[in-house]
Structures are given as structure tokens and as C-alpha cells.
Amino acid sequence: MFPRPLTPLAAPNGAEPLGRALRRAPLGRARAGMGGPPLLLPSMLMFAVIVASSGLLLMIERGILAEMKPLPLHPPNREGAAWRRALPRPGGLSLEAGDPDLQVRQDVRNRTLRAVCGQPGMPRDPWDLPVGQRRTLLRHILVSDRYRFLYCYVPKVACSNWKRVLKVLAGVLDNVDVRLKMDHRNDLVFLADLRPEEIRYRLQHYFKFLFVRNPLERLLSAYRNKFGEIREYQQRYGAEIVRRYRAGAGPSPAGDDVTFPEFLRYLVDEDPERMNEHWMPVYHLCQPCAVHYDFVGSYERLEADANQVLEWVRAPPHIRFPARQAWYRPASPESLHYHLCSAPRALLQDVLPKYILDFSLFAYPLPNVTREACHQ
């Protein structure tokens, strides 16, 4: 058994608790003085270092599983006693025995979530959140009453395919391979559509999951898709970004040629709680301290993790997560490395604090953009 989290996780004497400090952290470019260097929220960065160290230890001593919650209650009329006998034994979800990488990753994430979310001032329940944060959360959690699960969708982490799966499970679509433009609102039920007592019941009894992705890879994917392909985003966001950050842009830029550094500058000046959902941090979208998720899947092993979830919720065996389309080209680690190395390092230092909880909570490494790494 691993020891409890290191004591530096706690706030030093006289310092603010982590949760309160995060809420009060200045937005945009916080400066120690008028001309001083950027302030990188020391408590958050200290925590990132601790998480990186503990993650390394877990990789060395792999195989130790965190305690996981038992499966939630399911409808009594699904398949009778035979279905109930097929459930895993009480004591937790059974991860694939032959996949130690999955076991280690879930263990790191479970332990990190418990360590961070146990800090003073962190929310324990959606009703601990300010109204705006709670509204964002409830609008991003999809409900399946038939299969008794809740899914917090994160844009640019295969959420369109998950919505397609939910519509098949609800009988709205015949199969996941139906070729049509995804309607992201109709025929879907969100927690925000329900009454408070209905929300509380589902949060207590339903299986809850989300899927995450390397934070910077997700940003690059959003940048390439929204500013390279979607005219609405070019006009609404791209034109404003060019006006703000490009000298001599003129009053009416098209917004279809936003550079990645310009996009990063825009993110530095944005309040994370008011960002567009495609680049809002996962922490603000899904509030993993206020909602106790049973499983956190990875984009990096999307199909395997997604099909594991479908087994856990007892989806019909013929329903499988859609395979990635042959034409789709996701943002690759090589492409991300190129874009990060092409951006000013000071700009990256200003962007990273906005997403530091996504890195640390979900066990993603901070990027290596040293000169040596960028010249390899």
C-alpha cells in the first residue's frame, strides 16, 4: 500500500486552502509587479510536481489497484435474476486483468482525485458550486435512465460518437454507423433538464463516467477544427482574435487564418469559467471533485475504454463504440510538438496554469519544450 499524499499538498501555515486559492486566482496574465515575470500559481505547480513524482512511483510499482465503488443500482426489470448473477462480485469494478497500463492509469487518477478533492475549500457536491459553474456542469452531463448511467461529455474527446451511442441505446437511431449530421441537443437528456431531487437521485445511484485527453492536444484539435473548417467559429471567434492580437489587421478580418500562438494569447486573456466549451478546461466542464465519477476513460485508448464502459452498463452486446473514420486525422503528438515548439515559451507559461488541474488530476505530463527537446 502506498503512503498517504505528501504533506506539501496541504496549505502551509497562513496560506489559503487550494480550492479557495483556485477560485481567487487572478485571470489573464497575473504579474508580481508591473514588469515582473508571470506568476504561475505556486501551489498548483507544486502539486503538479508532486503528482508527476507519485505517478512515476506508481509506474515503477505497477499493479496496485485503488479502491473503486461497487456498480450502481440497475433497473429491476432488465434481465431478472440471471442478469444480477452476472454482475461482478461486490467490492468494485473489475478492470481487465491483462492490462496493467489501464490499472496503473486508473490508480494514479483515483489517488490524485482523492488527494486534490480532499483539500479544504474544494467542492464535495454540485450544490457546493456557484450557480454559473453548476449550470455548466449540469448542461454537460447526459442521462441514460434505461441503462442508469451519467456521461459528462467533453468536446474534442469523441463526444459526438458518445452522443450517437446514447441515441442508439435510447432507440432513436438504428445503429452507431448511421451517416447523418449529429444533432447535439435533440433526443438527448441532460441533468439540467431535471428537477433537483431527480438530479440528486441519479448522481447517487447511476454509474458516472467521462473521457479525457491530453489538454494541449485537445486545444490543438479544437484550434485546427474550429478555425480551419468551421465558418461560424472563424467569424465569431477568429475575427476577434485577429483584431486583438495581430498588428495592422484592419477592422474586418476574415478570421480564417488565426495562428496557434494567437489562439494561445486569446486563451491567456480568457476566464476559464466563461470559455467556449471546446477549449474550456475539463475541470470546469465536469467538476470531478463535485461529482464522484466511477470511471475516467482516455482518448488515447478510446475504443477499448469505451467498450469496457458499455459492458459495465450492460448495453446490448451488438452495440459497440464507433470505430474512427478512415478520413479522420487526429492531432498527433508530433504535430503538437511542432506547434508547441513554434510558440513563444513565455506564452506557454501563461497558458499552462489555466489547464494545470487537467494535467494533474488526469495524470498527463507537462510538455517538454526545452531547446534540446525542440531541436530533436
Automatic annotation (TrEMBL):
Its EC number is 2.8.2.-. GO terms for cellular component: Golgi membrane. It is a single-pass type II membrane protein. The chain crosses the membrane at residues 39-60. The keyword Protein biosynthesis does not apply. It is found in: Golgi apparatus membrane. Pfam families: Sulfotransfer_2. GO terms for biological process: carbohydrate biosynthetic process; dermatan sulfate proteoglycan metabolic process. InterPro entries: Carb_sulfotrans_8-10, Sulfotransferase. The keyword Secreted does not apply. Keywords: Carbohydrate metabolism, Glycoprotein, Golgi apparatus, Membrane, Signal-anchor, Transferase, Transmembrane, Transmembrane helix. GO terms for molecular function: sulfotransferase activity. Belongs to the sulfotransferase 2 family. This is Carbohydrate sulfotransferase. It comes from Callorhinus ursinus (Northern fur seal). The lineage of its organism: Eukaryota, Metazoa, Chordata, Craniata, Vertebrata.
